[in-house]
């Protein structure tokens, strides 16, 4: 069973920065992609950003230009650098890893809280 361990959430003022980390218990090459989703209170979970082992990235329009996803293949870890944070970025951020195996199982981390204050 793959485990994803997240860290780096917290409370920050609007305009500030945070960096999230997600370490996988399996090789990053076991996954088609890894990335981040987030869920605000009372809302659906939504895509933030994903990255493939080869480095191809995908971002939600709402974070493009402010967030950067990166990975360290040797550490099976992905990072999310969040700059110019806005109040609407508040939520629980979940790491996701999508297996390359048939069936494409998705693994989720436990979530880390990000709170942006005015």
Overview of the structural elements:
The chain is mainly β. The protein is globular, with a radius of gyration of 14 Å. Helices cover 0% and strands 53% of the residues. The strands form two sheets. Strands 2, 4, 5, 6, 9, 10 and 11 form a seven-stranded mixed sheet that branches. A four-stranded antiparallel sheet has the order 1-3-8-7, with no helix packed on it. The protein is built from no helices and eleven strands. The N and C termini lie far apart (40 Å). A hairpin with a 4-residue loop joins strand 7 and strand 8.
State the gist of this model.
The protein has 118 residues and is an all-beta fold.
Question: What is the topology?
Answer:
Blueprint: E1 4-7, E2 10-13, E3 18-24, E4 31-39, E5 46-51, E6 57-59, E7 67-72, E8 77-82, E9 91-99, E10 106-108, E11 112-117
Parallel strand pairs: 2-11
Antiparallel strand pairs: 1-3, 3-8, 4-5, 4-9, 5-6, 7-8, 9-10, 9-11
């Amino acid at each position: 069973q793959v485990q994803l361990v997240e860290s780096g959430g917290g409370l920050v003022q609007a305009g500030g920065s945070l960096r999230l980390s997600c370490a996988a218990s399996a090789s990053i090459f076991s996954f088609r992609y890894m990335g981040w989703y987030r869920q605000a209170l009372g809302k659906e979970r939504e895509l933030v950003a994903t990255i493939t082992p080869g480095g191809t990235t995908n971002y939600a329009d709402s974070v493009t230009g402010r967030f950067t996803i990166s990975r360290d293949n040797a550490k099976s870890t992905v990072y999310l650098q969040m700059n110019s944070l806005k109040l609407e970025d508040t939520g629980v951020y979940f790491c996701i890893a999508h297996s390359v195996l048939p069936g494409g199982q998705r693994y989720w981390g436990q979530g880390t809280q990000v709170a942006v204050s005015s």
